[in-house]
Amino acid sequence: MANNSFIDIDRLMVGDIYTSDEVWDNLLVLCDGLGSRSAGSAEEEKAADFIAEKLLAYGLPLVEKEAVKYTGWRRGNAKLEILYPVQKTISCITLPHSPPADLTAEIVDIADGGPADFEARAADLPGKFALTTSVTYPVGSKRWVHRHEKYDRAMLAGAAGFIFVNHYPGYGPATGSIGPDGPQCGEAPIPGISIRLEDGEYLKRLLQEYGRVQLHLTSSDEYFAATSWNIIGELPGESDDAQVVMLGCHYDGHDIAQGAGDPASGVTALLEAARVLAAYAPSLPNTIRFAFWSAEEIGLIGSTQYVLKHESELDQIRFYLNMDAAGVVSPQDIVINEWPELVAPFTKYHDQMALDFEIGQSLNAHSDHYPFMLAGVPTGGIGSLKPHTGGRGYGHTMYDTVDKVERKGMREAAALAARLALRMAGEPSWPAQMRSQSAVQEILNSPEHREEQALAAQVKAYLDSKEA
Fold it and tell me: How far, in whole angstroms, is CA 388 from its chain's centroid?
């Protein structure tokens, strides 16, 4: 093991984390007590107050609630009927930010919804329902294909509606936003719903036997002016020119579930990291900032608004560590978002801490690190470098409940985050500086990200034309 100058603080923090049940108690409050904490709900506001009160109780001297205003979405009723070749009603849920619908159309099977799948069936999609699955690595794709990308490809191809089939048996429908990402979000252009695997397979069998299947969708979802809150806590650095190490996780979930793994296991791990750092490492040269984001699940709204509001301060941030669902990530590695100069310090920390986490480079656009990355801030997160080709599991379903989460995972995530933050805040100098916007664009235009960026440009042009 490399020389560990933080060994005494490490032992105090780790010993406390593993002999306290604070992470579990907090998980129970967030999930059993406050339910889904969906964006714009009374439960989300109560969760914001709970988090702020906890940070103050843990001894953080600076705790703020920052209001986040945006277009909220409220679930109504949804009904999906088969009109041909049989008459039958199928259970469904609308996807967040889906507009109210009264739509009759036939379906087109887009298989697992990879780019090649859409290219093969694009000519058949205008005026139809695009039927695809939640598989994250479609056949022929070397990268994760997110639900939002599948929805966007359907929309651009002229589909009238989008049907998202959970590919796990027995898990029911899988939710997830289809509204435009950004500081305000807003209405999705075409309705989107989710159904369980078993009903999706039934529709496919009908399509294969009869050649066409006609559906009628009605839904009564609505939009409203919403307010949520980002919760920011700080342990101020003692240096006159203190920089900031920032750790963050969103606390809002989806309205159909407790969101225990995604995101509450990360929220509790982040709270625990704040607790032990405040207790055992209050005097550091640089600031440690803890951010609990609102409205992530419907478009990264809380973190995006924070980046816009605090644009002039972003160059003070050494590193942003994202902890979305960190307590159920396995293995818990450190994923750096294309910052080769940061491999050396994290390798040093790995050796000091005598832990087995891996360090690698990767980037996706679907959690709260992304607005910071786009602004040029050095970013990364606790994630797995092993591709989870199966999908989300219980995540985004009604079965993402407390019984799926273990103390061990939350404790490990809390200890990893606290020990890393201690070291990053104690470094005399930091090798990574903010990127220029041209450097950010160079990364986004690299071969591994070019396809997604081209799609994003098409979506923006489409939405701009709709507004005009």
Answer: 15
Residue in 37, 19, 30, 24 with CA at minimum distance from that of residue 53: 30
Task: Label the pairing between strands 359-361 and 333-336.
Answer: parallel
CA–CA distance, 272 with 110 (Å, rounded to integer): 44
In this structure, CATH architecture of domain 7-73+224-435: 3-Layer(aba) Sandwich (3.40)
Q: How many Å apart are CA 300 and CA 298, to the nearest integer?
A: 6
Residue with the two structure tokens 């396995």: 330
Strand, coil or helix: 104: strand
- CATH class in words for 76-220: alpha beta
Distance CA 65, CA 51 (A): 10
pLDDT tens series, the chain, 468 aa: 578 899 999 999 999 999 999 999 999 999 999 999 999 999 999 999 999 999 999 999 999 999 999 999 999 999 999 999 999 999 999 999 999 999 999 999 999 999 999 999 999 999 999 999 999 999 988 899 999 999 999 999 999 999 999 999 999 999 999 988 777 787 899 999 999 999 999 999 999 999 999 999 999 999 999 999 999 999 999 999 999 999 999 999 999 999 999 999 999 999 999 999 999 998 899 999 999 999 999 999 999 999 999 999 999 999 999 999 999 999 999 999 999 999 999 999 999 999 999 999 999 999 999 999 999 999 999 999 987 767 889 999 999 999 999 999 999 999 999 999 999 999 999 999 999 999 999 999 998 899 999 999 999 899 888 877
Angle at 390 between CA 384 and CA 395, to 5 degrees: 75
For residues 194 and 87, give the distance between their C-alpha atoms in angstroms, rounded to a whole number.
Answer: 19
Closest by CA to 268, choosing from 431, 461, 33, is 33
pTM over 0.90: yes
Residue appearing with tokens 């081209």: 454
